[in-house]
Structures are given as C-alpha cells and as structure tokens.
## 1
Amino acid sequence: MRKLGKQARILLVFYRGHSLHRFEAEHIGDHCLHSTISALFNGYGLVFDRERVKVPNRFGTQTTVTQYRLAGSSREKAARLLERWRVPV
C-alpha cells in the first residue's frame, strides 16, 4: 500500500468513527490539527463537530482543547473523497 498523505490519514481516522484532539493527532503525524480540519472543510466541504474538552498536560494540570469528530452529514462525502484518493476504508 502506498504512503498516505496527512489529510488522507486524518480523514480515515475520522471516517472510522474516531474523534481527535490536537495531542492525539500528534501521534499520527499531524502537528497542526486545526489547520487540517480547516483544509478539509474549505477544500472539500467536510463538516466536523467540535467539543471543548479538558485533558491532562505534561505539567500536571488541565488544558482545554477542541475534540473534533466527522459530522454524520459529511460521512458520505468523506467516503467518496477517500475513494477518489484510493484509500482503502
């Protein structure tokens, strides 16, 4: 299988039903998740649900981040885009 680009990798995670915040996205190679979400929205019309959540940080306190999830209304559009990018779902 060919190497997936960042947008394809992130979209596949969302398409499979997972949600992500910025620190989780770091583990799969996205160091600027909000920009990737913006690119997927502006470039392809994909909509993401957002929720502000608190997560532990490395200093032992809580940090507020945005948790993103692919909106149900964008699931079909995401499937077509992944197919166009030849990403096996």
## 2
Amino acid sequence: MSDLHPHCKLWISSDTSDGSFGTAKVRLLEAICQTGSLQEAARTLGISYRKAWADLQKAEACLQCQLVEKTRGGQGGGRTVVTDQGRRVIRAYSVMKGIVLQGLNQAFDGFVQEVKS
C-alpha cells in the first residue's frame, strides 16, 4: 500500500452567491502579485483574460471582499494590485489547506492501519 496516497480538493463556497474560492484562484492572485497585471497573470497561467476576470469576480462575491484593485490601461498601461485583504486571504487559505492536508494524512494513516489489520 506504500504506492497509495490520499488526495482532496479544497474550496470555499457560499450559500448566497454563485462564486467559489480555491487553489486555482489563489494561484491567480499569486500570479497577479508577481506580475502586477491581470493580463500577464492570465497568460502565465494559460487562461484567457476573460476567464481570469470572471474568476476574480466570483471569488470576491464568494468571500464578500475586494481582492484586487485595478487601474485601467492608458498610455502607461493598466495594472492590477492584490489588496491587503487579498494577501490575507492567500495566507489564510494556505494555512487552512495545510491543516486540512495534515488531517487527511492522519486519517489516511488510520485507513492503512485498519486495512492492514
């Protein structure tokens, strides 16, 4: 059984909105932090600008907070900045995911012990 590993997908959803928030949206926010641009972040992740923008709107609706501040393009070009709240969301999600994975691994160890006995 040493070749078996547990897996799970973790996301946050709301009973009152259609949006959700999970690993893909964390990656999008992290890419925006690195590039300073929603368009560049989308390109880096291999998704369209339209999908990236829609994902951000859904995440903000789900979490009920502003994750990015966007400045429209002009002569110098636009930019997108992750807000302080957005950075806190990234950190909190990472902590939560670590706790969930730790619990998953403990539960899996119990599963393996039960199956072997």
